[in-house]
Amino acid sequence: MMTFGCPPFPGIQNTLTKYAQYKKRLTQSTELNQDLLNDLMKLRAPKSVTGSQLQKGIDEKTLELIQTCIQNSMDLQTAEDIAQLAGVSLSTIRNYLKYLTKEGIVDEFLQYGSIGRPQKLYRMKRK
Fold first, then answer.
1. Where are the annotated coiled coils located (predicted)?
2. Tens digits of residue pLDDT in 62-112
3. Which of 33, 60, 91, 115 is close enough to 51 for a disulfide, judged by CB 3.0 to 4.6 Å?
4. Total domains, the chain
5. 18 and 37 fall within a common domain
6. Residue 114: pLDDT band by 50, 70, 90 thresholds?
7. pLDDT value at position 106?
């Protein structure tokens, strides 16, 4: 079985597995009834309910991609590092990091150098 990392296709294996289950259940049935429809809807519906709870401008798929990229690194990362890993613009990453920090999903740290502004570093909140 082929697995994908970050980026370009996080979660594709799960999506393909769910599709295979959906198609198998649909083609095995000889009769359409309410139980079959309920089963098919469960397989088709996304497991996450976060999509309806996300603030305006935050896309669920992009959010998952960014979270996967942050989780896959054990080190603290800059916004630039995460943008490069995810293949997303720096301004987009900053918006998502602000959201993730506000929601308490990501920790933000400041690294002070001898010159200039402090650098912001990020990692997933430890449990």
1. none
2. 999 999 999 988 889 999 999 999 999 999 999 999 999 998 999 999 999
3. 60
4. 2
5. yes
6. confident
7. 94
Structure tokens at 108: 């933000």
The one-letter amino acid code at 41 reads M
Same domain as 88, residue 36:
no
Report d(CA 106, CA 125) in Å as an integer.
5
The residue whose two tokens read 């992009």 is: 62
- Cα gap 72→124, rounded to integer Å: 10
Query: How many residues comprise the chain?
Result: 127
- Could you identify the residue written with the tokens 């909140």? 125
Co-location of 40 and 60 in the same domain: no
Placement of tokens 């690194």 in the chain: 73
CB 125 within 8 A of CB 105: yes
Q: Higher model confidence: residue 87 or residue 127?
A: 87
Is the peptide bond prior to 118 cis by the omega test (within 30 degrees of 0)? no
